[in-house]
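Hi V.,

Quick status before I head out on leave. The structure for the redesign project is tokenized and pasted below; the design run finished overnight.
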């Protein structure tokens, strides 16, 4: 009867390859540990040198992936695999994957452009991706992550970002807060202007320079609109916006300035009302 298992041959193979397999596993374990340490060390070094926090995770991930590829090539060479052939196969596979993932590669290229030209950075308040507004939490390889005022997490593909208008609301360090207050046609413009400027002067977030002003805007159907644009630090935009709306309303109430609402006056002609 024919033997399907040649114990002598099997023993020879185990004897020949067991040390290589054990060495490869040991190399992988130690290699991954060393790569983890190197990546963490590189990240801490970049943070210590105050490298832009938008770039730090991007570079750390590239270092990590690159070192792991080199480690796998080294382990493959331990089994007698020609690394040149392996690289050729890997390159062909990469090309095939690249053709299948053209959109993702486009987002990757857009992410690189964002990191190079820096239209915004982490912690900036921006409007991107066709109107998505929020604070930049992270610039990833393929996406930009925003956090909205109501704590929503918006993930915008980088390709969408670079193909649309980018508005960096807080990019200058200080920002003007657009405010409009409506008063009744019967109220005094000068008195209302004085109240708005007084509230702005008392607001702890509004800067003294440039000075805030109050001008008369377009007339509404039921109101005279007073426009103001006080300046504050970029990070204080929303707290200034809400502070002014609340305290101007309270000040108007205290001084008898009325807030108008849509209304219609109807005049009856006595001659036609009989």
């Amino acid at each position: 009867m024919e033997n399907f298992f040649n114990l002598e041959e099997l023993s020879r193979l185990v004897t020949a390859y067991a040390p290589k397999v054990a060495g490869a596993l040991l190399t992988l374990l130690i290699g991954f540990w060393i790569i983890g340490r190197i990546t963490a060390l590189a990240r801490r070094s970049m943070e210590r040198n105050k490298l832009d926090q938008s770039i730090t995770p991007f570079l750390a991930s590239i270092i990590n992936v690159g070192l792991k590829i080199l480690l796998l090539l080294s382990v493959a060479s331990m089994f007698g695999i020609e690394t040149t052939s392996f690289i050729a196969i890997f390159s062909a596979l990469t090309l095939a994957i690249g053709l299948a993932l053209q959109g993702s590669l486009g987002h990757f290229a857009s992410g690189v452009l964002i990191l190079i030209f820096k239209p915004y950075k982490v912690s900036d308040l921006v409007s991107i991706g066709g109107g998505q507004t929020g604070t930049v939490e992270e610039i990833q390889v393929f996406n930009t992550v925003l956090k909205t005022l109501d704590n929503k997490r918006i993930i915008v593909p980088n390709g969408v970002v670079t193909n649309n208008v980018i508005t960096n609301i807080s990019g200058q360090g200080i920002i003007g807060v657009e405010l409009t207050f409506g008063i009744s046609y019967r109220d005094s413009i000068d008195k209302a202007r004085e109240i708005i400027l007084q509230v702005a002067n008392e607001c702890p977030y509004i800067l003294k320079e440039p000075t805030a002003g109050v001008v008369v805007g377009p007339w509404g159907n039921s109101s005279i609109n007073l426009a103001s644009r006080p300046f504050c630090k970029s990070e204080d935009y929303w707290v200034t916006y809400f502070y002014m709306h609340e305290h101007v309303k309270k000040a108007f109430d205290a001084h008898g300035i009325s807030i108008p609402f849509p209304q219609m006056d109807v005049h009856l002609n006595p001659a036609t009302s009989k």
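Above is the designed sequence. The beta strands are 125-128, 132-139, 143-147, 153-157, 167-168, 174-176, 179-183, 214-219, 224-228, 231-233.

G. will cover questions while I'm gone.

Best,
W.
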